[in-house]
Every structure is written in structure tokens, then in C-alpha cells.
Design a protein that fits this description.
alpha/beta, globular
Length: 309
């Protein structure tokens, strides 16, 4: 008897059923991420836009900061000194453009200029703009002496310059001590310019500083029998030395990079630049003019005992 092969209908159904189940589950599994995919893409897109905005904002902030830095540098560091680079169409000498209308020129020095060749410097007295006078630093505070003062002071007179000496004031030291120290350091002679008080440093108590300056001026005036010269900048004088008593002293104004003095009061000397060049002086030097004639400058000097003003 021939055996018939077994019927596999049930098995086929199972396989088919299994295949259907697997196919169905696969379709469902694949369908789920397809529904969520658009949401994820939107989140990424929004995140990218916000990152780009932050990056652009950062660049803009950096650009604005750079512009502000450039403007600040120009306003505070370049603009005040722009006069140095202005073209000179008039009196140019000693490396700068000299102010108009002044016949008597001079300079001032300290140990910062180093050793000076006074014989070479003497040649400036025979130029179209002769150098007639020189101020030099003698002392500072209550115990500092300029190391080159004695040699410079003697050499200036020997080479025919009208000489003067100044004291750099220190607000932290008593005015009596500073005045006495200057008197001990400087032996002025007839023909020398009056002593100079150089005040450039502010104090927390400006009222006290003004009182101390008056003490120094009075003490030095009593000793040398001549009114001292007051040296300070245009801004310092107009802002802090408003007391009328300071106007009674000859004023030496420091006012750089301007065509003319803006100070409305009386003044005798004008320090108009700090970048002058003179033969015999290796470093840059301050240049000055006297507000008057050579004869008037000589009248300002300390008189001999036999002469009366």
C-alpha cells in the first residue's frame, strides 16, 4: 500500500500566519519612527537657528567692542597729541613748529637729558631763533637733589645762558622742609631767574595743598627777596589754583600742542612742547618762550645789591 505524503496545510497556515504576524509587527515597528521623525527634525532645526543667532550676536558684540576701543584710543591717546603731526607752514626750528610772535626762546632740563654738550648748545645763540635762557631741576620733595644740577647750573652761566632753577613739589612732604631743602640746594646770584615752584601732582585734600604751596612760596620769597615763579599746567592752574594770591606770582604755563596760549590771565613763560631737539642734548627737551623782550627778561632776574627795581 502506497503511503501518501503528509498534509502540511496546518503547518503552512502557521508559517503563513507567522509570516503575517512578523510582517505586521515589522510594518508597525517601522511605522512608529516615521511618525516621530518630523518632530525630531524640527527640534534640530530650531536648535541650529538659535546657535547661529548666538554666534552672530557674539560677532556683532566683538565688532562693537573693537570700534569702541579704536575710538577711545584716538580720543584719549592720539587726538590730544595730534598737534605734533600737523604740518608746519611757519617758524620751524629745533624739530618743532615754533609759536609766532616771540623773540626770546629757552628750554628746561633735568637729569633725564643726561650729559649735555654746552659748547655745542651755545651755537644756538647765533641762529635766527637764539636760545637765551634755561631752567633746570634742582630738587624734589624734601631730600632729592638732581644729580646733574650743579654741573649744569655752572655750565649754563659759563656759556652765556640766563639760568634758573626749579623745585618739583611733593604734596606728601611738608612745605617748610621742601622750601628749606631748595634753599640749601640752590645759591642764586644776580642775573639768575627767580626760583621756580613746579607743581604737577594733585592731592586728596586740595585745600590743604593750596595752603602748603602758599607756605613754600612765602618762605622762598623771604629768603631770596624776589617773587618765585609758579610753574604748572593750564588745566591745573585753572582747576585748582583759583585763589587770587597765586595770580600775584609770575606764571610759567605748560600748554602743549596748541597754536596759542588759551590762559586768560597774565603769564611770563610758555612751555609749548616736550619734543624739541637741540644740538648738544641727546634726548628730547622741553622748549619755552618768554612773553616779552630780552630786556624785559633781564629785568625779571635777581638784581645786584646796588641796583633797585
Amino acid at each position: 500500500m502506497v503511503k501518501e505524503p503528509p498534509i502540511l496545510v496546518v503547518n503552512k497556515d502557521r508559517k503563513q500566519t507567522g509570516v503575517r504576524k512578523r510582517t505586521s509587527s515589522t510594518k508597525h515597528a517601522a511605522a512608529k519612527p516615521r511618525k516621530k521623525a518630523p518632530v525630531k527634525k524640527e527640534k534640530k532645526k530650531k536648535g541650529k537657528v538659535s546657535e547661529d543667532m548666538l554666534l552672530w550676536g557674539h560677532y556683532v558684540a566683538m565688532g562693537v567692542a573693537a570700534v569702541l576701543i579704536v575710538i577711545s584710543c584716538y580720543y584719549f591717546f592720539i587726538r590730544p597729541y595730534a598737534y605734533r603731526w600737523k604740518p608746519c607752514y611757519g617758524l620751524k626750528a629745533y624739530g618743532v613748529c615754533l609759536p609766532y610772535g616771540y623773540q626770546v626762546h629757552g628750554f628746561d632740563i633735568s637729569h633725564h637729558q643726561g650729559i649735555i654738550d654746552w659748547k655745542m648748545l651755545q651755537s644756538t645763540q647765533n641762529t635766527p631763533f637764539p636760545i637765551r635762557f634755561v631752567f633746570m631741576k634742582a630738587s624734589e620733595g624734601g631730600d632729592f637733589s638732581d644729580e646733574n644740577f650743579s654741573d649744569n647750573f655752572a655750565a649754563a652761566k659759563k656759556n652765556g645762558f640766563i639760568r634758573g632753577a626749579y623745585h618739583f613739589y611733593n604734596p606728601k612732604t611738608s612745605p617748610e622742609r621742601q622750601a628749606d631743602f631748595f634753599i640749601q640746594s640752590v645759591k642764586l646770584e644776580p642775573g639768575d631767574l627767580p626760583p621756580v615752584l613746579d607743581i604737577e601732582t594733585r592731592s586728596r585734600d586740595m585745600e590743604k595743598l593750596c595752603g602748603d604751596l602758599k607756605i613754600w612760596l612765602k618762605r622762598v620769597e623771604e629768603y631770596y627777596k624776589v617773587k618765585p615763579i609758579l610753574y604748572t599746567s593750564y588745566k591745573f592752574k585753572t582747576r585748582y589754583l583759583k585763589d587770587s594770591i597765586f595770580d600775584t606770582y609770575p606764571y610759567w604755563i605748560a600748554h602743549y600742542y596748541v597754536d596759542s596760549v588759551r590762559y586768560e590771565g597774565e603769564w611770563r613763560f610758555w612751555q609749548h612742547t616736550d619734543v624739541g631737539t637741540l644740538p648738544g642734548v641727546r634726548r628730547k627737551v622741553d622748549l619755552n618762550v618768554f612773553n616779552g623782550s630780552l630786556e624785559e627778561l633781564k629785568m625779571l632776574t635777581i638784581p645786584s645789591p646796588s641796583k633797585k627795581r
